[in-house]
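User: Okay, second chain of the day. Same drill as before: sequence in, structure tokens out.
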Amino acid sequence: MSHPWNNLNSGDFEQFCYHILRFSGFQDVQWLGVTGGDKGRDIVCCKTERVFRQRTVNRRWIVQCKHYKSKPPTKAEVSEWLAACHEHHPDRVLLIVSRAITANFRDWMQHIQREHPFEIHVWDETELAAEYRHHRHRLVSLFPSLPKVSRPVEFYAVAPLERHIYCNEYDEVGFVVLNSDTDADAESRILEFVEFIKANDIKIWKRTNRKKKT
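Assistant: Same drill. Structure tokens below.
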């Protein structure tokens, strides 16, 4: 199967994964692979997890990126990497593989979990493709060899003077433009609004509904 990252070399693939982790909410993301001799660490990072309503925990992650164009990693390679991870005492480890891995391989990784003091996670081409689709609009500006985004914004005329605007690459956020009778006018006003947001601080006000006492 052809994927956008297939044309990246190993170093670029590590940077590709580095940026995906940044965009996915990881903090203090550091790419170590460029220095060589990473001892099982291509990327190190942290992520804050909520364990109770009023309590969060900062988890340390070690990430290894394997860009295989013809075959998935072997059990021996993964075992060697996991052994190297012990030296760094992480809370979580993540193996990112550019190819598909089998269900048997996932079962084996789950089985060996008991041999290690940290949680083991894996992304293969399926998880990586989902992350790519979500962050594609950012990644294409960083990696010229990736396919360009073609017209990701769509306009929907819901009412005569009301237009809803959504992006195919970003499902969670959209715009509603009122008193606009053309797509060009709506697009111009959105771009103006985006520039306004970039130039100002954003503060979220929580609206509470209070019932009047009778």
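DSSP finds five helices and eight strands in the chain.

User: Thanks, on to the next one.
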